[in-house]
Each structure stands twice: as structure tokens, then as C-alpha cells.
Amino acid sequence: MTILVSLPTSGVAAPGTDIVTPVSTPLGELPEKHSAKAARLLAAASELLVGRGARGFTVADVAQRAHVGKGTVYLYWPTKEDLLIGLIGRGFLSLVDDLIERLTEEPDLARPSRFCPMMLEIATSQPFIAALQRHDEDLLGILAHHPRSVALHDQLGPSAVLHAVLPIWRRHGLARQDWDIDDQTFALHALISGTALSLIGPAPAPVTADDPMGVLGAAITALLGTERATRKQIRSAATEIMAFLRDGHTAALAVIDPPRPAG
User: Hey, what CATH class is 2-78 in?
Assistant: First the structure.
């Protein structure tokens, strides 16, 4: 995995050139883990993206808000597109990390009636995941349908997660098995997507329920059946779900910072 950083110790391109040369960073690590400047740039870009939309600002605006030179942005991200894809990707990484942390602390959250509301609540709190869910072109611009955005959503969006975890639930006594799995997946996806759009869609429906996520949990149980799993089965389900999420984390990192050819 690489980030872009100039060879001169001053952190600028060599005299007489506009070339910024990539150097390696540890695989699986993001630049903001070791660079306060990178962290400030991400925070600045996030604020501008939320406030103005993808079309409403430039790399120079990001640099100015982060109190660095414009060239510093390119030390970490070759293009504005890479920077913005990085923001979206970090939203998915945060979602995954949060889910893994909670499942580790409380495996009982692997129950469908608890997992689905938890996942949806975390996902809709991530502004860029929510924007992808509602296809918000005003906020995301071309990123709404960009291949790398689509790849992130296809790997770790709510529908992708549900498609992966439903077979786990069926194997471990957490979902009925007397229903064709494709039909069951479609019904579950429709329920989750409808709930999400009612909360964060372009024209959110008035929420009359006092506890929408509690209602969703009850609806999940009505759809999938009574959760009859033993504690051992629940722990096994949690372990398998976390394995899927860790694989997704790795895949998301590859989308955020794809390998670049040497030289």
C-alpha cells in the first residue's frame, strides 16, 4: 500500500518539477494513523463535502481549511477523487470496526433482531454511507455512481452484509429455514432498505413510532421467526459474522488505496 510523499526532506517536490513520488507505507495502515497533517486534511475535506457537496470545493479549499499548502494534499492523495473516495471508504471502515467491537463485547448482538437495528443505526449515522444509500448526487456528485464507491457499497453496504449473514443465521438457529433463501434475502433487504429510506431518504417519511429501531427488531423476528439458538450457536454466529466483516475491512482498504505500479 502506498501514499504519496515527496522525496525531498522538506516535503515538497524536487526543484523544477511538479513530480510527487510515492513511497511505501505498512500494508493496511492509513496515513492519518501517523500523520497529523493527513488527519487534518481528512477532517477539512469531510467538512467541505458535507457543507458544499463534491462539486463545491477544490483541493486548494481543503488545504486552506487544514492550514497547509496545496501541495501537501497531493503528498497523500494523487487526486481529489482519491481523497473523496477515501472519505467514503473510511465511513465503511468505521462501520465495520464499530460492529466488530460491539460483537466482541456482546456476542448476543449477533441475533437478527438486535444486529439489524444496530447495523442500520451505525450506517445511517455515517453521512457518506447514508448519501450512497439514497443516491445523493447533490452531496456526492460523480462519486454517487463511481466504480470505487459502488465497490465499497457492494462489499460492505447493508444489503451486502445481510446477504452474507442470513446464511449464518439460518445455520445457527437464528432464522427459519422453511423459506427459499433467495426469497428470504429479498424480503429482509426490502424491510431494511425501506426502514433506511424512511429515516434518511430524500423525503424521509414522518416517524410516528416512539422506538423505530425497536419496531424494526420486532419486524425482523416476525419475518425470520423466533430465534431459537443456544448460547454456543450465538457465539459461533458472532464469530462468523466478524470474520466476514474483517474480510470486508481488508477489501475496503484495497479500494481506498489500490496498489499502484512501481516507478
Answer: mainly alpha
